[in-house]
Design a protein that fits this description.
- By secondary structure, the chain is α/β, with parallel strands linked by helices.
- The chain is built from eleven helices and 14 strands.
- The protein folds into two domains: 150 residues, Rossmann fold (3-Layer(aba) Sandwich); 162 residues, Alpha-Beta Complex (L-2-Hydroxyisocaproate Dehydrogenase, Chain A, domain 2).
- The protein has a six-stranded parallel beta sheet with strand order 3-2-1-4-5-6. It has a three-stranded antiparallel beta sheet with strand order 7-10-11, covered by helices on one side. The protein has a three-stranded antiparallel beta sheet with strand order 12-13-14.
- The longest helix is centred in the last third of the chain and has 23 residues.
- The protein is globular.
- It binds nicotinamide-adenine-dinucleotide and (2S)-2-hydroxybutanedioic acid.
- (2S)-2-hydroxybutanedioic acid binds next to helix 9.
- Pfam families: Ldh_1_C (PF02866), Ldh_1_N (PF00056).
- It catalyses: (S)-malate + NAD(+) = oxaloacetate + NADH + H(+).
- This is Malate dehydrogenase.
- It is an enzyme of class 1 (oxidoreductase).
């Protein structure tokens, strides 16, 4: 293979998402069939043995695109030389919990990991935070990595985006690949705003679907926003394979580009669309040359304005809460 191997650190490697994610990365689904990857698995000491079992299976799969697999319980060692980091390791919520209930439980993980990234990651490091509450955990990590541009710290709303595509495709009786220009705004929480106002199906706008306000407001939006809880209720565990798949989609598009389309990614707000600066919020994004760019100039109607503002306000509240806990 022509290119040098890419070093990819995955935290929570022995967890449910980790198990689904590692094999997709190793198989070439992330960076393509011509790019070798070295995996660096980070776990807590109690789960290192389980991670070793996963590493044995990765070895047994004999992927042509897999280079080395190393296992760590020390973040500084795990992030040394990392080009890409998936920060998955943290506690998932259980039935009856909101993702914000995880702020204090998981927030403490991301400061030390931000410091470790700052100390040793490669100069082109790209970070995707999956562990909940993902947006604010990404903010915590970024705030501990002063030498890494904050644009390199992102959080995952791609699962919400994919859920929105699936719901719209079902409603319209089309394939997900026929749909474009869907956006998830804000927080990866129930305040998120899955927005269809710009959506197209086979290149055409969808006025009839948008006119069905009962479906948009009482069915589509709550179904997408509460899908995580519905999965927990059905499976008895939080989404794992779909989350891993969305993580692959996010980083694949970040590195290789969105090629004419747009997607949703939670990135550091620069104040676009009056979302306060300094929170990690989901926007409509393209990726060109390895950089996320917010799609600018979209018209925001009154309903959308209220929903975007409400989710941004929740992110500001989360930021205040973690500041009071001394996490940023
Ligand atoms: N953003 C999203 O769309 C999305 C979707 C699904 C799940 N999640 C979140 O992803 C996280 C992981 O979910 P899961 O189902 O894999 O959970 P899991 O409990 O199956 O696995 C988590 C793993 O993380 C490890 N871990 C804990 N602390 C760690 C640390 N400090 N360093 C390294 N590893 C650590 C645990 O040992 C465990 O193996 C949860 O917070 C969940 O809520 C986010
Ligand atoms: O909802 C959860 O707690 C898990 C995850 O964030 C999801 O959206 O499936």
């Amino acid at each position: 293979m022509a290119n040098a191997p890419v070093n990819i650190t995955v935290t929570g490697a022995a967890g449910n998402i980790g198990y689904a994610l590692l094999f997709r990365i190793a198989s070439g689904a992330l960076l393509g069939p011509d790019q070798r990857v070295n995996l660096r698995l980070l776990e807590i000491p109690q789960a290192v043995q389980a991670a070793e079992g996963t590493a044995m299976e990765l070895f047994d799969a004999a992927f042509p695109t897999l280079g080395t697999v190393d296992i760590f319980d020390d973040p500084k060692a795990a992030f040394e030389g990392a080009n890409i980091a998936f920060l998955v390791g943290s506690m998932p919520r259980k039935a009856g919990m909101e993702r914000s209930d995880l702020l204090s439980a998981n927030g403490g993980i991301f400061g030390p990991q931000g410091e470790a990234l700052n100390a040793g990651a490669a100069q082109d490091i790209k970070v995707l935070v999956v562990g909940n509450p993902a947006n604010t955990n990404a903010l915590i990590a970024a705030s501990h990595a002063p030498d890494i541009p904050s644009s390199r710290f992102t959080a995952m709303t791609r699962l919400d985006h994919n859920r929105a595509l699936a719901q719209l495709a079902t409603k319209a009786g089309v394939h997900v690949s026929d749909i474009d220009r869907v956006t998830v705004w804000g927080n990866h929480s129930t305040t998120q705003y899955p927005d269809l106002t710009q959506a197209t199906i086979k290149g055409a706008p969808i006025p009839e679907i948008l006119a069905d306000r009962a479906w948009v407001e009482e069915d589509f939006i709550p179904t997408v926003a509460k899908r995580g809880a519905a999965i927990i209720a059905a499976r008895g565990a939080s989404s794992a394979a779909s989350a891993a798949s969305a993580a692959i989609d996010h980083v694949h598009d970040w590195v290789l580009g969105t090629s004419g389309s747009w997607t949703s990614a939670a990135i550091m707000s620069d104040g676009s669309y009056d979302v306060p600066e300094g929170i990690i919020s989901s926007f409509p994004c393209t990726s060109v040359n390895g950089e996320w760019k917010i799609v600018e100039g979209l018209e925001i109607d009154e309903f959308s304005r209220g929903r975007i503002d409400a989710s941004a306000a929740e992110l500001v509240e989360e930021k205040t809460a973690v500041a009071e806990m001394g996490l940023i």
